[in-house]
Amino acid sequence: MSKTIIEHSVASETFNKDEPYVDWHDETLWFVRQKRDKSSKLLPEWEQLREVASGIKNYVLSHMDELLIAFEQKAKENGVHVHWAADAAEHNEIVLNLLKQNNIDKMVKSKSMLTEECHMNEFLSKNGIEVIDTDLGERIVQLRNEPPSHIVLPAIHLKKKDIGDLFHEHLGTEAGATDPQYLTEAARQHLRDKFLTRRAALTGVNFAIAETGGFVVSTNEGNADMGAHLADIHIACMGFEKIIPTQKDLAVFLRLLARSATGQPITTYSSHFKKPRDGQEMHIIIVDNGRTTQLGRADFRNSLKCIRCGACMNTCPVYRRSGGHSYHNAVAGPIGSILAPNLDMTKNADLPFASTLCGSCSNVCPVKIDIHDQLYKWRQVLVKGGHVPQTKELGIKAMSVVLSQPRFYQWSGRLGRSLMRTVPFMVNNGMNPWFKQREMPEPPKESFRDWYIRNRKE
Amino acid sequence: MTSRERILQQIKLNKPAETQLPEVKRFDSLYENTEDKFIETLTAIYTEVIVVKDYAELAQKAGELYASVVNRATTIPALGNWADFSLNNPDPHALEMIEIAILQAEFGVAENGAVWISDAHLPHRALPFITQNLAFVIPRKAIVNNMHDAYERLADTTGWGCFISGPSKTADIEQSLVIGAHGARSLVIFLLEEA
Q1: Is B146 in CB contact (< 8 Å) with chain A?
Q2: Could you give the strand order of the β-sheet that contains B186-192, starting from the edge strand earlier in sequence?
Q3: Is B77 on the interface with A (CB under 8 A)?
Q4: In order of start, what are the domains of chain B with their CATH numbers?
Q5: Is the ipTM of this complex over 0.85?
Q6: A276-285, pLDDT tens digit by residue?
Q7: Which of A38, A89, A382, A430 is the most buried (most CB within 10 A)?
Q8: Distance from CA of B164 to the nearest CA of A (A)
Q9: Which residue of A has its CA nearest to B90?
Q10: Domain A8-292: CATH class, spelled out
Q11: Domain edges within chain A
Q12: Searching chain B, which residue's CA lies closest to the CA of residue A47?
């Protein structure tokens, strides 16, 4: 679990070595962003829907305890077992114990970013439990011993040739085969066998409804349902912020979720679980793992409104050009960068700096989280807390000295321009981070200030 | 103190000042023709919509569409003669053999092509997922405009229900759309006029 963490900027540099690959990654995600745009523009009430969703989620934050208690009571009435886990370790123990009690050592799992956050698969595997991820993208990265690189599109960093080679090795597909139809069919056969033979299924939770005690799981593939309806025991894991007040609120969130994520009007399956089927056991694990702390941070609590659509990643110029793995966190991209420091400030101090603060993330967020403002605010918290490397701190201090003294600033500008003209190699070298992956621009002849003074005189 | 108590106590301490729910939480979608919109949405997600007059025409169409298919199951009594696979087995794993299931569902949603199906009409929850091909039958009149209208109809839900919109799909390999991930490889929706 204690893997060495490579800082985002360093990991991005590796990612950027293969230029055509980065271009492809960038364009693929931008295409998804465009699908979101088209789809959202078909709804005249889109902006109002975002406003309403944000309002409901604000209500949820301020009534969290009451809603969770109501949910628990209803769920119990429905015959569902409810468990509470203070942290990742307790969550993992609960899952392990449920499996042990039922003498189960093999389980299928549909997408759950919470179990990624808790490193559950690793823990269960060490305890003799085999976990098979059943979402196609997740199965692909699992076979590669990698975490997902995107919360909605787990294998978006891979080319079909990579997947063809992987399936040839693990699923016995023909060598060199890259046809997505053929590869998907092979995975379908491989996973159908797992669905039919596993007695336990774990799913995530997209929305938990306080009013009914039910919960909704959204997939396109149908893997959550295939697992849950064939298994003797269904375990659903949720961070406590997944709660919403009433069933009708689902209309607002389901209208926003898939349109924001992939541009679809809704996912293929929006499965509403309320009671276990006859003879089945259903368990819900409500997890904290730092969420109560985040709820107490006035500047950052809004991050708990997230519905995990991934729109902020698809639009982010830094995510698109650095890839999800560079963020070394279960949730990558802009939203991951404001969630991760709450989990561990030292390990994740680099992430809020992995942004241009362009604000595109906040503009596409379906629940109106002020993501770029929070990125900016985290930087200040992290620097003050001493979590940022000294070089970065020195740079910021030097910048502050220059920018706070107009004469010094003017002199520095002149010096910089003349250096770029006369001794370009002093600037155009590997020591200058602005020279990486790009040429330096032609230095202007004069500053705007000089130009302005000259023209005013004329 | 249990984790439950600790979490709830921490939430109480840390939660923000009280805010209220938005006053308006629903919107109307105004389509010229709800059924046309429903069909248009479904066509875009590889789903065929067929209007049938009555159960006799449904049986005839089902016969034509799935003529050479074996292991046909249904929850619709009028298709009893058409089906050759019994749903009476209590073990859902037995459903794995089913090639086509024609199932009674409740209503459709025009904005996204979703159809609601629930325990109320299903002997097995696994059925709409495990069958290789799927068809729903809903009353022609039972199409609402959008999800707000849908949840107004769903004031009370059973133990389990699902909105299903199109056949199962994935784009996890280089964003190439493939129909038939883990669930149904094809979906047909019959709109029944006399229901």
Answers
A1: yes
A2: B47-52, B186-192, B133-139, B100-104, B72-74
A3: no
A4: 32-192 (3.40.50.10420)
A5: yes
A6: 999 999 999 9
A7: A382
A8: 5
A9: A278
A10: alpha beta
A11: 8-292, 305-390, 405-457
A12: B27
